[in-house]
Amino acid sequence: MGRVIRGQRKGHGSVFRSHTKHRKGAAKLRTLDFAERHGYIKGIVKEIIHDPGRGAPLARVVFRDPYRYRLRKELFVATEGMFTGQFVYCGKKASLAVGNCLPVGTMPEGTVVCAVEQKPGDGGKMAKASGNYATVVSHNVEARKTRLRLPSGAKKVILSACRGLVGIAAGGGRIDKPLLKAGRAYHKYKVKRNSWPCVRGVAMNPVEHPHGGGNHQHIGKPSTVRRDTPAGRKVGLIAARRTGRLRGGKKVVAGDKE
Q: Is the pTM of this model over 0.85?
């Protein structure tokens, strides 16, 4: 009987909970209302702020409430080229300009978008990390669906009513500069969660990790494990479809329109 391994302890929470004390709030699109569904609404970018633990900057956008006499402050993921004092327009009839929010169904093919919704009205879930973007590949007008290429390269079909911000998420090129020293990695992960430094399993004792022990640092068994493996053994490549290096060119499926 071994010890409770790190992967199991993470599920318990405690010291592994994310550090949210200084975060600025959830970055979401406006709540989908009548103005956005049928026309557009104008907002102004008041400030662009840093959100601890997030690579992309956030934009605080102020809209006038269409139903009551008050202002509504929203936090958007800032797009590349956004500036304070800029007017942004949200809605079905908004123009195709960087920073504007409109349904992907109204965008021409090849448009670059970020903070795209998976379901209409969810506030934006995909392509929100710094420098990321999705590309509108094609539209199916009859089914009211749109095909996107995500930052991972995967293609995804979503409803054309899902909204997105036109442009690339700001803060790109962040990973081009190496961290260089441990102190920078320490501060990077300090505002995220307790996930650094990360000791390798083969460097541990057999009691602490399935890969531990032995006279040389080696795994000593297949690194792939089943999806239903018990928690104390579930380490390495979990339910891997394939392993090893990616070799050869990309296969283009016949009829797969880019």
A: yes
